[in-house]
């Protein structure tokens, strides 16, 4: 069936799934240039505006856990369609928020609904592909979905240049309508009835128990989750750091922030392009080492109050390391989980947003004019991700040691 796709059909399939995967970055990044404006309009502190991002991240994390499990029971298409309908309604609700607390609650629902697109798109990939084909297709999917962080803040700043932050959420609602149409007319079911798990709460819990007992799966999940959780400190902190500390305009902020979409693409495509030469596991380690080096540089720059370019450059390569680690860790974690791909994808998706919901508000603890918390969080995330790799993935068993020597790790 789909395993025999032509190159043209494969690209079209990736574009469809990429549209749903990109919903996360658009939901998170598109309103970032509006942070100072939202704070001013509601007469609130930066930390409360950042809490709206935290609420969205919690929704994205918890939602993936639920929607991924439901997709193992009811198939991929129906839960995806329902989540997109909820998403468009929640986006329009954000647009009419009368105060910051209503916005925070609406952002949670919006994030919860957006999670369906992210987790189910990844589960569909595992339904259709395996082995190196899984890595190559996931790399193609990342290429498409990683364009979103490049476009979203630029689009957001463009919108607020001629209207208010409300316009951002109206546009997100329109995107939700388009995705409902795509899910209805373009997406076919990829999980046959005989491959679905029973509608049994205990069985679903046992699926997660199985995943938690898989030491290597948890190692890959933690390495990926901690790294992406760390980058949300960057996502939450840079709107204030670039605009308040360095005096960047919303348009310049959008360009600087959006340029990191390029670094995400570079990091992910290096893995996909050379997967047949260099193992995914080696790419994962290389990405983690790169993140350690660049996050250390970021911390030094913020401690010394370096100029803007000296902060932007290491952040560019830090984000590239995220592209490498995410693209390499996903197929490694999912390869042996075909029978519960939805639950596995959900757990992989939960950890980054759960950790991101913790790191996002911590960036603002020292106020709008300090970048030190962001630097500390980035280097801490890099260190903890390396620990997850060495203590869980690269465990000292005979087979793994032999494999590590063969790979030169």
Automatic annotation (TrEMBL):
Q: Which residues form the Major facilitator superfamily (MFS) profile domain?
A: 13-399
SUPFAM superfamilies in alphabetical order: MFS general substrate transporter (SSF103473)
Coiled-coil positions are none
The UniProt entry, under Pfam families, shows: MFS_1
Is-annotated flag, keyword Transmembrane?
yes
Q: Which PROSITE patterns match?
A: MFS (PS50850)
Q: Where are the transmembrane segments?
A: 49-68, 80-102, 108-125, 137-160, 166-187, 217-242, 248-271, 283-305, 311-334, 346-366, 372-392
Q: Which UniProt keywords apply?
A: Cell membrane, Membrane, Transmembrane, Transmembrane helix, Transport
Superkingdom, according to UniProt? Bacteria
Q: Read off the InterPro entries from this record.
A: Efflux_drug-R_Bcr/CmlA, MFS, MFS_dom, MFS_trans_sf
Give the membrane topology: Multi-pass membrane protein
Cellular compartment(s): Cell membrane
Please give the family membership noted in the entry. Belongs to the major facilitator superfamily. Bcr/CmlA family.
| Name of the protein in question | Bcr/CflA family efflux transporter
| Annotated organism of origin | Alicyclobacillus fodiniaquatilis
